[in-house]
Amino acid sequence: MLKDKDVVFLWSPEKGDTFLLNLEEGAKLDSRLGVINHNDIIGRSYGDGVRTHLGSMFYILRPNVLEFSRRIKRKTQIIFPKEIGMIIVALGVGPGSKVVECGTGSGSLTAALAHFVGDEGKVYTYDRREEFSLLARRNCEKWNVAHRVEFKVKDIAEGFDERDADALFLDVPTPWDYLRQAKEALSPGSRLGILVPTTNQIEKTLEGLNDHGYVDIQVMELFLRYYKTNAKRIRPEDIMVGHTGYLIFASTVRDIT
Amino acid sequence: MLKDKDVVFLWSPEKGDTFLLNLEEGAKLDSRLGVINHNDIIGRSYGDGVRTHLGSMFYILRPNVLEFSRRIKRKTQIIFPKEIGMIIVALGVGPGSKVVECGTGSGSLTAALAHFVGDEGKVYTYDRREEFSLLARRNCEKWNVAHRVEFKVKDIAEGFDERDADALFLDVPTPWDYLRQAKEALSPGSRLGILVPTTNQIEKTLEGLNDHGYVDIQVMELFLRYYKTNAKRIRPEDIMVGHTGYLIFASTVRDIT
Amino acid sequence: MLKDKDVVFLWSPEKGDTFLLNLEEGAKLDSRLGVINHNDIIGRSYGDGVRTHLGSMFYILRPNVLEFSRRIKRKTQIIFPKEIGMIIVALGVGPGSKVVECGTGSGSLTAALAHFVGDEGKVYTYDRREEFSLLARRNCEKWNVAHRVEFKVKDIAEGFDERDADALFLDVPTPWDYLRQAKEALSPGSRLGILVPTTNQIEKTLEGLNDHGYVDIQVMELFLRYYKTNAKRIRPEDIMVGHTGYLIFASTVRDIT
Amino acid sequence: MLKDKDVVFLWSPEKGDTFLLNLEEGAKLDSRLGVINHNDIIGRSYGDGVRTHLGSMFYILRPNVLEFSRRIKRKTQIIFPKEIGMIIVALGVGPGSKVVECGTGSGSLTAALAHFVGDEGKVYTYDRREEFSLLARRNCEKWNVAHRVEFKVKDIAEGFDERDADALFLDVPTPWDYLRQAKEALSPGSRLGILVPTTNQIEKTLEGLNDHGYVDIQVMELFLRYYKTNAKRIRPEDIMVGHTGYLIFASTVRDIT
């Protein structure tokens, strides 16, 4: 039974409109199909329908990471679901993982990582700008995973506080400047992930990874193409995202002395 | 410190050769760069190097789901890492999730799901063919997640044994034949995922999803393009995977009576 | 030296704005960077610059098929340059070719075909709707190739008037209804090209092509991804066209009697 | 009626095997389906069938640029049909065009350009290595377009011999070294096309184009995905070409003095 603070995903069969909502007693949601009272959802269950004051139906669905990261409140470029899935899989993140991340940004990856590490895991996320750290914390609170995250406002040039991290992710403009720090924070044999938007950054990052002795380096990009869902006219959407960023993965090893 | 039964991922700086290994005391690995004794790895740590009898170095890296699902012992078409990442994210799978899957096949998705649900979660996987169920179990045992999986040899036309599943995945030739059964097994408001290789199957699946009252239907495909890792000659690989399958996602709702 | 009726392509170094223009004595072009008098272009040469009344520069470039087909005046979905290039190449169109096309639509492919067949070639284009035929003729006149085209307002269910065509292209909603007619019009051993937007149409087209004895059938789709042109930040554009249509090619053969 | 020296494209309905052939009296073609005597084709027509000595049928189809450029005898990396189509369209090549190209390589683009410029046009192609020039000439002879081409063995660092070219294409490792020479050869307001395989080369090329005052610069890449042609199982081919090269286009303008 749904209660205050629960997260619901609303979907309209009429127009396909969607909302991701933190339930709050007494609150109202405005939509172009009419107003929905949160109180009309509280006490109901996932899978039920709720009507706006104009009579339009919305279905109450379970939220998922894909919708959450797409709809996050943002002040920065976010990391998209297609990349998030690959990052989780390629970094080997899972229940109990200890993951370090920089920068926090709006927290789309932070929240996803916190979802996947579970209550036994931990996410340590760094950003130099306090406003982003606060925004990301609020976003993680909405998703009820903020307790699994340590938000740090700090310049990683000084190094990470953690050692023996299971995975580390860099989403910063000059990742090549922090490869020594990343290596110190990672458990040997573990994976570093990096997202960069330009090929010039791939070049400098690859040079840095080689200089710092990273191994099993992989560079990739993902395309996601949605299709229209009319069974009689199956075809891709006219417009698609052409680029978000390039993903780079590499493993640390012990220095041979 | 690595011990018997641990999983390691070996990577050669010389040729980029890789192996995913379950350590076994006394066992040997044959490679084109020479023989590696498992005993030379046992007692070492991730991040260390180990040499073949011919002197070639392999690094001992932590395994991850990406490499595991790519290298799984298979008798069937497997589900690939790029789809696995999206499936996990779009189905909202995470620690504690109760996930149902059919067919088991070689168990690449089974093992990945079992990895992500953690010890508090559970994966129920169905296949009509006992040989696949056994193969998938062995694959999950290698990855040390078999205890989180119930392997069932059963025709799902009779229905799933589970109710209130958090997510359900169908990788079968005629998913439209099992949409009623899937809906019965899923918790209302939760997501069904489907993989089909052809557009003819998309058509029939979309018709079935509409007939059975599923909502928020999405159809997509993912492309993964690897790049060469020479910093001075950045370019995509000449050849890429052109197609694995189309992913379809939809949510169940309660029937309005 | 540029004169009345010549076609010029204007490009602004300031904002990247572009115009494709038929020069007309005394005419004016309104742009957000100011007004350009056609008379200021007439008498100049390609490669020169011309200034708006506000002092902004536009360069006078040679037009090409790519820009023309992108910028054509349209009342219908047009065929895009990436498909036009492949169609020309796969149909073997060239100087002297005799090409049949249906439907005419806004004439983007008509004009491109007329460009490539030269003065020794001929394009026969069919459309049931006179308004499209007229629009396409005006577009071809702008490109100075209308004299190479016969515009026919006619239902191709009754068959094409031509025989021994070197190539034939169908851009109609139900191409499978006209495969007999296409075969009659084509020279044996020559190629038919088809554009369809949905996979359901691919299915019916392939069935029809097999029924009518076409051989060497090929189905393909093309993706075109533009990159930003800042040398220090090389990356694809954020948004790209996700779909225009599927191209199908097949050859006719003589019926064995 | 087919005669000595004609080009035919053979296609087997049995296995999809294909051959591009210059007919030669008395010659034989070996295939895994048996031997075909050229004399059995001479005197027949396009669209007819011919049988191997083992009774397998091949259809005699009209050749096209797509198949020719794919099947060209090569000693170098060739330019592929998907790029050729875009190059022709973006450079505005057509009947009567005067086109300059470097390097000649195996002549796949040379032959395609020669096809499209017709008997009123001309292609001037440069390569430093005589063996490529000779190979390309033989390839163009097979396609019966060699009379439209001037093959030059010369280093373009010294400049091109031509002035007022309608279009110029560079397929060389360091195109940025020849941008002055290209500008001198091109008619003002006309287009330069460049193919480079790496992003590092895009970077240097963009810098050079800006330094030399080129305008309307465009960078793009094309993907071509083939589909299987079974109407009941429509799906892309498993494997596709992931990369051939990046296309860069830019226009020359008159220097303002």
CATH topology of the largest domain in chain A: Rossmann fold
The CATH class designation of the largest domain in chain A is Alpha Beta
- Work out the number of β strands of chain A: 14
The helix/strand class of chain A is alpha/beta
Domain tRNA (adenine(58)-N(1))-methyltransferase catalytic subunit TRM61 C-terminal (chains A, B, C, D): 58-237
Pfam family, one (chains A, B, C, D): GCD14
Family (chains A, B, C, D): Belongs to the class I-like SAM-binding methyltransferase superfamily. TRM61 family.
Enzyme class (chains A, B, C, D): transferase
Put the structure in a nutshell.
Chain A is α/β, with parallel strands linked by helices and 257 residues long.
What does this protein structure show overall?
The first copy, chain A, is α/β, with parallel strands linked by helices. Chain A has 6 helices and 14 strands. In chain A, strand 3 and strand 4 (34-37) form a beta hairpin. In chain A, helix 1 packs antiparallel against helix 3. Chain A starts with 6 loop residues before the first strand and ends in a 6-residue tail after the last strand. At the A-B interface, strand 6, helix 1, helix 2, helix 3 and strand 11 of A face strand 6, helix 1, helix 2, helix 3 and strand 11 of B. Strand 12 (215-227) of chain A pairs antiparallel with strand 12 of chain B.
Characteristic key phrases:
globular; Vcp-like ATPase, Chain A, domain 2; 14 strands; alpha/beta
Summarize the helices and strands and which ones pair or pack:
Four copies of one chain form a homotetramer.
Chain A: E1 7-11, E2 18-22, E3 28-31, E4 34-37, E5 49-51, E6 57-61, H1 65-71, H2 81-91, E7 98-102, H3 108-117, E8 122-127, H4 130-142, E9 149-153, E10 165-170, H5 179-185, E11 186-196, H6 199-211, E12 215-227, E13 239-241, E14 246-251
Parallel strand pairs in A: 7-8, 7-10, 8-9, 10-11
Antiparallel strand pairs in A: 1-2, 1-6, 3-4, 5-6, 11-14, 12-14
Helix pairs in contact in A: 1-3
Domain TR61B FKBP-like (chains A, B, C, D): 20-55
Function (chains A, B, C, D): Catalyzes the S-adenosyl-L-methionine-dependent formation of N(1)-methyladenine at position 58 (m1A58) in tRNA.
Domain tRNA (adenine(58)-N(1))-methyltransferase catalytic subunit TRM61 C-terminal (chains A, B, C, D): 58-237
